[in-house]
Amino acid sequence: MKRYILSVLGLGGVLAAGALEVTGLKCESLVDPLAIENTQPRFSWQSDAGVRRGEDPTAYQILVASDKALLDEKNADLWNSGKVMSPILPSVTYAGKELRPKDFSYWKVRVWNKDGKVSDWSPAATFGIGLLDEGDWKGVFIGRGDVADKDNSPFFRKSFEWNGGDDKVLLHVNSLGYHEVYVNGCPAGDAVLSPAVAQFSKRSQIVTYDIAPLLRRGGNDIVLWLGRGWFHDSFPGGVSGGPFVRAQMETLSGGQWKTVLATDSTWSWADSGYSSFGSWWPHQFGGETVDCRKTVSAADVSAIVKWHNATEAAIPSHKATPQMAEPNRCTRSFHPVSKISDGDSAWIYDLGTNFTGWTEIDFKGLPEGRKVRISYCDFMNEDGKFRDGLYEDYLIASGRGHDRFVNKFNYKAYRYLKLSGLSEAPQLSGITAKLIHTDYSGEASFECSDPDLNAIHNMMSYTMRCLTLGGYMVDCPQVERLGYGGDGNASTPFVQTIFNMAPTYMNWMQAWADCMREGGSMPNTAPNPYTAGGGPYWCGFIITASWQTYLNYGDTRLLERYYPYMKEWLGYVEKHSVDGLLEPWPETEYRGWFLGDWATPAGIDQTDPRSVGLVTNCYIKVCYQTMAKIASLLGKETEARRWQAEADKLVELLHNKYYDKAAHSYATGTQIDLIYPMLAGVTPRDCIDDVELTLETVTAGRYRGHLATGLMGLPIITEWAILNRKADFVYGMLKKREYPGFLYMLDNGATTTWEHWNGERSHIHNCYNSIGVWFYQALAGIRPDETGAGYKRVCISPQTVDGIDWVKAAKDTPFGRIAVEWTDKDREFSLKLDIPVGCETSLQLPFKPSVLTVNGKKHEYAETIKMPSGRHTIVCRR
After folding, report:
1. How far apart are CA 471 and CA 188, in angstroms?
2. What's the pLDDT score for residue 662?
3. Strands 218-227 and 155-162
4. What is the pLDDT of residue 153?
5. In what helix (H) or strand (E) does residue 730 lie, and over which residues does it extend?
6. Residue 170 in contact with residue 208, Cβ under 8 Å?
7. Contact criterion met (CB below 8 Å) for 533 and 595
8. Sign of torsion over alpha carbons 511, 512, 518, 522
């Protein structure tokens, strides 16, 4: 279908009364970060014009000062940018006086519109520079020494005097394993399962807390509660005897930082009553045992009589850096919807939905020493029986009449909960599930007239919440918890559409760089604790996901930092290429298999060498093409030409090797084999119509109108369909209720997407969520433009299909909220748009109208160009 572009520049109309306003200040995409990991932060903000359409800001001024009292034009001692003529940008890099570790600064911004009117200054925001070098540390790692109970989750404690009067008091905590912090009995924050993940053989994370509000003059008490998490001695970088921690308290007074407290052997440790079990290998994530005979609240450890001297620990050298992802938080609480008995002493509870997080259970009247088994599963067996023996926790009763179980340093992902060893079942209200995910900002919403599509979208969107925690995206939170690059590549466009994931990807991409081996070899997961399967689509995550992150958020930092790693990996690809095409590389101790597509429906041989060779080399062609764009963006034009030349070579090689001219087909003729060459630019223009006809015939005949692909094929189909306005092709496949399909999942009780179309192994998984971006980019038509990354330029190009009468969608962007609402009835297409200040927007209508009105005024049709910011109503008649 031909696309038509509408020009409506200069159309009047007042948005709302009020002045130009600056809101949403962020540093490094974070709100008031206490400790960032670099000395050249990037600032961002949003503007609300409060003026006529299209009158976006044309200049800005930033002030940065070491003290809030200095934050004015005359006294700003770190940076006064002056009036900079520029439209709103996704971010602006600090260019003031040199910043150093521990510096804490204040900043604000104002903007001008095209008429020279200036906004008020924004409220002041803050940022701090963290501990960046090993020399910044005075605290040493401490542990329990040589103890028999290696699985204990201990308290570490220090009492100290504080006289007050400091401007700032920060506590930097660098734990190898999870931690929680309590100061004078109060939690130092509401984050859980901190810090974010890292490749322990190369890096650990530092979390910084502002503890000034919790201190009191005189005696004070700090408690660090530790759990092992991923820090196991069987994984790279792990050391036996953990968990370990180092910490130091810094005070700012008179512009000078002083270390007033640091971990050493004068700290004490004690048993918390919590212990962990499980190796954290696949299917072995174990759980926690809570011995209520021993437990005391971390908020009141005074009841503990027996404390032991901490031991300074020898930890292998690695880089410790401030955590740059938002923390995990409990974001929702709910209770089971039903329970049934399972024999005389066990009950099974249905939470009503799968979720990832913690479980809190109140037990009453248990005799001392009674051991209650708490087990979990994400779906029942085919005979309706509980899938026992998968994941479990334990509670040992105190005999004091009331005991409470709640997770601390592990989490579960499940729908069904089984309690064993009880004579009486707790009430539904006595069990609370707590959904946990990274507390990212940003939201998106989608709704249309088709309830089936709404159900599919909502299942995928909720699944992504269940998979994004710990500063990365897991494949499945109950079986492996690994950051697979293939799953990540597939889901990145969708998850970055519905949430602000810029800090998460900053953290995750660092793990990928840390996991690279000598010679450019990459694993299939990051972090990479052990061997995991995948292929080039998994290993190349550092290229294609970095580009997607730039496209969605407009920050070039990932590209700048990891371009050398991208080059090195492509060098590894070239070493394993024969006659210009990549061949299977060797398996290693950290990487297995050599996949093309994965998790395909029954009857499709995803291991066929023809398909594997075609799709992996199409992906390499996309990587070369992406590298050409990255190199050009970074000013490396010679390298950009080199990457483009490599991409061009693959076009002819792939078409000549895999195209069957008589059948108008590629390789095995599956959906992925037919579509990927077209999407990757391999298929010659004069062959595209024939290949598309083959695709339609194969889909309708061999596959009965169903999706017939897996993890890698779904994002390829999705992207191709969006770019080529094939919404009806996707819609028809989504509406199928039989196996394989999303409605088949939903009709069989799914609340989160499955790992395999037939429901094997995992019912909370990241294989099939990639198609979620189609709801936003095809039906709603909200598409970022890579010539103006971070939604600086955006294309609104809604695609209509028979069977859908209306669509409503919205998403947060770096510039603000974009909203699209359309109806298509009685030969009239009506479209309402909300475009934030700073977005340069083009509108592509789904058809050429016979009559067109814009904001209530008849408008002559034109094929060009732009939509200004503001609210618009467009009506098209056929």
Report:
1. 20
2. 96
3. antiparallel
4. 95
5. helix 727-734
6. yes
7. yes
8. positive
Q: What string of H, E and C letters represents the secondary structure of 187-240?
A: ECCCCECECCCCCCCCEEEEEEEECHHHCCCEEEEEEEEEECCCCCCCCCCCCC
Spatial contact of 270 and 255, defined as CB atoms under 8 Å apart: no
Q: Is 553 helix (H, G, I), strand (E, B) or coil?
A: helix
Label residue 88 by pLDDT band (50, 70, 90): confident
What is d(CA 696, CA 729) in angstroms, rounded to the nearest whole number? 8
Residue 16 burial (10 A CB sphere; 0-12, 13-18, 19+): exposed
Q: Are 164 and 217 in contact (CB under 8 A)?
A: yes
Q: Count of CB atoms within 10 A of residue 660's CB? A: 11
DSSP state for residue 421 in the 8-state scheme: S
Within 8 A by CB and 6+ apart from 179, the residues are 173, 194, 195, 207, 224, 225, 226, 227, 243, 245
- CB–CB of 277/289 below 8 Å? yes
Give, to the nearest 10 degrees, the angle between helix 485-498 and helix 541-553: 0
Q: State whether residue 813 is helix, strand or coil.
A: strand
- Torsion sign, CA atoms 295, 298, 304, 308: positive
- The three-point CA angle 742-746-752 to 5° equals 85
| Under 8 Å between Cβ of 353 and 377 | no
- Backbone phi, psi, residue 72, to 5°: -145, 170
Q: Who contacts 141 (Cβ-Cβ below 8 Å, separation ≥6)?
A: 174, 176, 244, 245, 246, 263, 312, 313, 315
Distant-in-sequence, close-in-space partners of 385: CB < 8 Å, separation ≥ 6: none
Token digits of residue 665: 């087909």
Q: Mean pLDDT across the stretch 43-70? A: 84
Q: Residue 711 corresponds to which tokens in the numbers above?
A: 């993890």
CA distance 878 to 876: 7
124 exposure class (CB count in 10 Å sphere: 0-12, 13-18, 19+): middle
What is residue 262's three-state secondary structure?
strand
Q: Which helix (H) or strand (E) holds 744?
A: helix 742-747
- What is the residue whose two structure tokens read 């599919």? 456
3-class DSSP state of 509: helix
- Retrieve residue 457's tokens: 């979208």
Spell out the residues 6+ positions from residue 102 whose beta carbon is closer than 8 angstroms to its own: 128, 129, 130, 131, 136, 250, 257
Q: In angstroms, rounded to a whole number, what is the distance separating the alpha carbons of residues 505 and 130?
A: 19
* Residues counted in the chain: 878
Strand 319-322, strand 203-210: pairing? parallel
In sequence order, what are the residues at sequence separation of 6 or more whose Cβ sits closer than 8 angstroms to the Cβ of residue 696? 729
Sequence-distant (≥ 6) Cβ neighbours of residue 656 within 8 angstroms: none
How, if at all, do strands 840-845 and 793-796 pair? parallel
pTM beyond 0.90: yes
- Predicted pLDDT at 834: 94
d(CA 772, CA 790): 19
Please state, as a whole number, how many other Cβ atoms lie within 10 Å of the Cβ of residue 577. Answer: 15
Taking the C-alpha atoms of residue 147 and residue 162, their distance in angstroms, rounded to an integer, is 33
CA distance 795 to 776: 12
The whole-angstrom separation of Cα 259 and Cα 248 is 7
CB 734 within 8 A of CB 452: yes
**Quick check: helix, strand or coil at residue 160?**
strand
8 Å CB contact between 267 and 310: yes
Give whole-number Cα distances, 379 to 310, 390, 696, 751, in Å.
Answer: 44, 11, 35, 10
Per-residue pLDDT tens over the stretch 368-420: 999 999 999 999 999 999 999 889 999 999 999 999 999 999 999 999 999 99
**Residues with Cβ within 8 Å of residue 766, at least 6 apart in sequence:** 463, 467, 473, 474, 475, 476, 484, 487, 488, 490, 491, 753
Helix (H) or strand (E) run with residue 563 in it: helix 557-575
Nearest to 62 by CA among 17, 107, 95: 107
The values of phi and psi at residue 346, to 5°, are: -140, 145
